[in-house]
Amino acid sequence: MYNLVVYGSLLNTKELAKHNIGLNQIQTIKVKGYKRVFNQLPSWRKVDGIRKAVMNVFEDENSWLNAIVIKNLTSEYIRDLDEREIGYDRVSITDGNVVTYSNIILKNCIIYKGKVGKQSNNILPNPKYFKICKDGAKEHGEEFFQDYLLTTFINDLNGGIKRI
To answer: Is the dihedral of CA 158, 144, 4, 64 positive or negative?
Structure first.
């Protein structure tokens, strides 16, 4: 069984419902060692000029992000998700780096990290996708939403990133 860390559109309960994930299967978490940024080229979402970025994470030992975990997913479910997340690689998170908001350490966690060839420093968030993510973050309470704003970055179009 896997514990899947999700940090983008699947924060939104309407998106979770499309994948038959109920609220009893999720928990809010903090993930050490990763940074969240809108720099991923979409694999299947519609694009609009430079406003086409979807969410990605990259390893950064000095960073953290908040997310939700979908608990106890089967290998079969994960294989199906691999097809949806075609622009991403599934990676394991070091045990001890995922902690619930109530300070319980979770093990056997995985996350999808964007493929290097699908990233760009010259794109901005897809507005429709960004709204889905932001609305989803709000659904998990004010503390979670404030942490989301604190730990989410966009390209500054000069080769760097800045907070949203």
So the answer is: positive
